Amino acid sequence: MLNLSPDSPTDIVNLLDLSAPFELVGRQAQFQRITQVLARDGDLLIVGVPGSGRRTLVRRAAQEVSAKILEVDCIRVTDAQRFVQLLCESIEQAFQSANAQALIAEWIERKASELFVLKDEGNGTQRLKPFRVEDQQQQWRAFERLLPLLQSLAESSGERVVLILESFPHIRSWDRNGVWEKFLRKEIERQTQVSYVLVATIAETCIHPDELGNNLEIVQLAPLANDVVAAWVQEVLHTEALRFDPRSLALELFVNAVQGHLGDASALVRRLKSVRVSDGLIRDWHVQQAIQELLADLSMVFESLLMLLPANQAHLLESLALDPTDKPQSRDYIHKHYLSRGGSLQGAIAGLQHKGLIYGSEQGYRLALPLFALWLRQRLS
């Protein structure tokens, strides 16, 4: 049985670098692996739920190997034209030296004059911009030529380059036949000077395993262990001259509320750091009050998120929040909660996994955002 008493630290405390940023506490092994892959110009698929620290971990690893960092948030990629535009913006922001600008200008003149332009901003800087076209073939040609430019810029600069594609699977919403994704994956295999990092939810490994390819190193970010969270939160509060009352269940309440989720733990500890008590002891009601205040602040976000879900996904999510199970496909569970059978249920499970709202079978299909799960239970009870 796990001992979370503030006066009885577990062995894990001695294994953690508690002075590390929260994003790295409990993630040192993954951080080291990511750093090693980037150091040899390898490519990565980082999977986890929202708030698990995927992007921060990659950014810190890229900084560790002194790489130029380019980022494209694929949630903002609503179509092919937008994808090309955001790639251009990330390239221009990373490569602003005179040599890089000269190389881009030469590349446009020799290979892409009908597709791109270097626009003078009037303050000594130039912006790489694609011509806005409706023709899909021309958009495709722009994409085809843009990715090799990134390799050329990396070779010319002699620096490591890391392109982070956040929420990468979102491009499938418009790339229906997977043509752009297939070309991108071929470029990932071909390019030796650029490290590509695809950031996705856990659905990418359990629903699309055949699409991953052999060239991507996969790093999965599971929930942190309870004793890791307990050790960290006690250390953070100690810096504020605060600690959990050892005679209370305050620490256990905190750990149970966040369930190893980085984002939720960080948000809740910020609330607790503002607690003012004369003896420096945080008690049960302090934690409970902080949780309820946080849920109240997040209620509009959670309400909107729930309303945006298809009806079958919302119904399944509410069922799993009220009645957790590792077998949502079982006949008894379907009958008990009036769930749709067959493909509709499987589609709802896949949809929630794609959105990062539930884990897969390895975590018993539990809700991935603990505070959202708590809000749902309170709302439905």
Please provide a written account of the structure:
With 381 residues, this protein is of the alpha/beta class. The chain has helices spanning 12-15, 28-39, 54-64, 80-94, 98-111, 136-157, 179-190, 203-206, 226-238, 250-258, 262-273, 284-308, 311-322, 331-337, 343-354, 370-380, and strands spanning 43-47, 68-73, 116-120, 126-130, 161-166, 194-200, 216-220, 243-244, 281-282. α7 links the parallel β5 and β6. The longest helix has 25 residues, at 284-308. The protein starts with 11 loop residues before the first helix and ends with a helix. The model is unreliable at 5-19 (pLDDT under 50).
Largest sheet: 5 strands, parallel
> Strands of the largest sheet, in order across it?
2-5-6-1-7
Shape: globular
Number of strands: 9
